[in-house]
Amino acid sequence: MSNTVWPTNHFTNHTAATQMPNRSCPLEDESLRLPLAVLYSLIFLFGLAGNLLALWVFLFLHSRRNSVRVFLINVAVADLVLVSCLPFRVLYHSRGNVWSLGPRMCKVVGNLFYMNMYVSITLLGLISLDRYLKIIGVRGSQRGCGPSWLRGSRWSLVTCGLLWSCSLVMVVPMIALTEGNEEDGKCFHYKQRKHAQGKAFFNLVMVGVFWTVFVVLLVSYGQIARRLLQASRDKPDLPNASRYARTAKKSFVVPLLFTICFVPYHAFRGVYVASQLSDVSCETQRLMDRTNEAMLLLSALNSCLDPVMYFMLSGSVRKATIRALSQLFHLHHEPASTNSSTTEFRRASLSHASTAAVLATPRGSLGLITTLRPKPACLNTDGDPCPRTACPIKLIEQHHV
């Protein structure tokens, strides 16, 4: 018995290799470190400035209280939390992909980044659904007004509260529980999850959530654009008929940005997760890691583009922002052009009073949507109560995103 030697080193090495498979496969790509640090720095700076400005406009200058405003305030908050995670990535890449803040902080930063990305995605989908139901209407409700629970901003407040609560409930266990594959000094890198399959399947569920939101967004804005083009063809003699086609094209700005920023990442995500659950070569792991970094960069870019989208699509947001910046930098602001265009619009509207009545555009919505009702109906897409009595044919200019 004294001559028996147990191969304890074999079992120890096998266990270590199982828990930390990436140590035998270095994933660092020196050529990507500097570009990633620079690009994440730019996204952080522009995203921080743009979303702080957007939040300021929505809270203090754009006072109309409706559901879209509530959703957009929450989108700006989610984007701000997301960009606040980017300095950690910049520090990590600039220091040679070395993480010195511990594995717990790595999980906090990583999970907050993904949580707010999906909160922003869901909110953009809810905005498109809100606009679709209020503009197009649903069966069983007063035509064009949408169901009663959609009127006002209460439902959006409740929905945002539930969304944030569910997100926090899901992300806290992700931060608190260990996976057994953490590496000292490493973060934001490819990990094998054969022994942490729950996290991998959760990631696949979030991919499914994205594609569901993406379909809802495409259908909603597609139907809104179709209604605008139909109105342009059916009533070409109305005062703003020439603007219908241009407004319909603007309806596709949000789906276009959504596609550019999020579709590449989620199209690749299924392949990425599948590789984490199977035995793949070291070269494949490196390829997954590099590709995921490039796709994730596009997703982070959306936090910069959201404020640009608000500014492009909403005349009221654009005017409020320019006026505020003019006052901030003591620039001379000329309202004459606005007054002139308003006067011309009113004259054109009065000249067509025999065929249509013009409803003034509310200030508190985003993105111009113009829709025409040939039947007696009063549209109210801002959430105000719809009148019970029948209305004449109305041309309604409605802001949306």
Quickly list its features.
three-stranded mixed β-sheet; 401 residues; 3 strands; mainly alpha; globular; Rhopdopsin 7-helix transmembrane proteins; 65% helix; transmembrane helix; transmembrane; 3% strand
How would you describe what is shown here?
The chain is mainly alpha-helical and 401 residues long. It has a single domain, classed as Up-down Bundle (Rhopdopsin 7-helix transmembrane proteins). It contains twelve helices and three strands; from the N terminus they run H-H-H-H-H-H-H-H-H-H-H-H-E-E-E. It has helices at 8-19, 30-61, 67-84, 86-94, 103-135, 154-176, 197-234, 241-250, 253-276, 282-313, 315-328, 336-351; strands at residues 357-359, 368-372, 394-399. It has a three-stranded mixed sheet with strand order 1-3-2. The longest helix has 38 residues, at 197-234. It starts with 7 loop residues before the first helix and ends with a strand. The relative contact order is 0.14.
Layout: helices, strands, pairs:
Blueprint: H1 8-19, H2 30-61, H3 67-84, H4 86-94, H5 103-135, H6 154-176, H7 197-234, H8 241-250, H9 253-276, H10 282-313, H11 315-328, H12 336-351, E1 357-359, E2 368-372, E3 394-399
Parallel strand pairs: 1-3
Antiparallel strand pairs: 2-3
CATH topology: Rhopdopsin 7-helix transmembrane proteins
| CATH architecture designation | Up-down Bundle
The poorly predicted ranges are 1-22, 138-144, 333-401
Q: Rounded to an integer, what's the Rg over CA atoms?
A: 26 Å
Helix content: 55-70%
Q: Biggest β-sheet, characterized?
A: 3 strands, mixed
How many beta-strand elements? 3
CATH class: Mainly Alpha
Per CATH, the superfamily is Rhodopsin 7-helix transmembrane proteins
- Tally the helices: what do you get? 12
**Strand residue content:** under 5%
How many individual domains?
1
- The outline comes out as globular
Average of the residue pLDDT scores? 75
- How are strands sequenced across the largest beta sheet? 1-3-2
The computed structural class is mainly alpha
Question: End-to-end span in angstroms?
Answer: 79 Å
Membrane topology: Multi-pass membrane protein
Transmembrane segments: 37-59, 71-92, 112-133, 154-176, 200-221, 252-274, 294-313
Protein name: Probable G-protein coupled receptor 34
Domain G-protein coupled receptors family 1 profile: 50-310
